User: What shape does this take?
Amino acid sequence: MLQILLLATFLSLVVGMCLIHFAHLHESFSADHDLGGVQKFHARPVPRIGGVPIALGLTAGSCLLAWLLGDVQVLLVLLVALPAFVAGLLEDITKRVGPMPRLLATFVSAGLGYFLLRAGLQRLDIPWLDSLLVHFWVLSLLLTVVAVGGVAHAVNIIDGYNGLSGMVSIFIFLAIAYVSFKVQDAMLMGICFAMVGAIAGFLFWNFPRGLIFAGDGGAYLVGFMIAEVAVLLVARHQQVSPWFPLLCVIYPVFETLYSIYRKKFLRGMSPGMPDGLHLHMLIYKRLVRWMVGSRDAVHLTQRNSLTSPYLWALSSFSVVPAMLFWSNTPVLIGFVLVFIASYIYLYRMIVRFRTPRWMLLRKSTRL
Assistant: This one.
């Protein structure tokens, strides 16, 4: 597994370096020139094709894994991920692929995984619902497609600050790798290590300097791989609770669900319209007060990166219990409910300017 991790990291690192070094050759179509959007927090145009090094690192690691195990099913995982990645990458390059086509492409990937890999959700440890999923495969397919597409979209939602979604995703893949090791599933563990390496190589350039962004291609690829590997883990091993992956991804998933609720029912706007009230944005605006008001590029980049550790800590409060209680459904459900309650409490506390002083970042310390 170490060889897979190192190969994926090295290739992702080198490809990312090349994309940054030769940015002048492709920045006319690859860079994010929109600096004034409500969800834009960078100081200068930055290439947003970081999905390319992630994809190549994953591919290299997976090919090595397939060779070591003698199992071509690993390559099928890459094949089914292709529609989700390509749709996101096209948006990064053309800026003309909307959220719905990208989500539909992810649904296609999930459908391919259902039929080619048998990656389907047929149990939620809820007896009457499990019975329906077993006897009516269409319901299982529908649940799988929505769940996988939803997780991929959720990872894209939190991809707003340097290192944020990348590090959260590494936490999740490490948790899945740990459980894969416990149930002796070498293929899934190897894919997780390939993803960890690919993301780590990209993060070297993304955090804290923000020299390249993952873009929609990277976010949808990472999100899809999280969901697909999680579904495969639950489908292949009865002892793994289906609530284990849900607790792992509860931060991005509930961020998305709460965003839909906030926009639709509290603000009366379309859930697809961007706004500046995601939790990570509120933390940036109200907790990270280092160099507030400065328009200096260095200050903006550092303040951007100082936001991510808050959410890393929040994510760890769900991932760690998921690792510890991966087979215990009642306990996992309890932690899911605790996380949701904690998220809402934290969100309202920040909105109402009642954040404890110890959470505010004022010190002018450079990264």
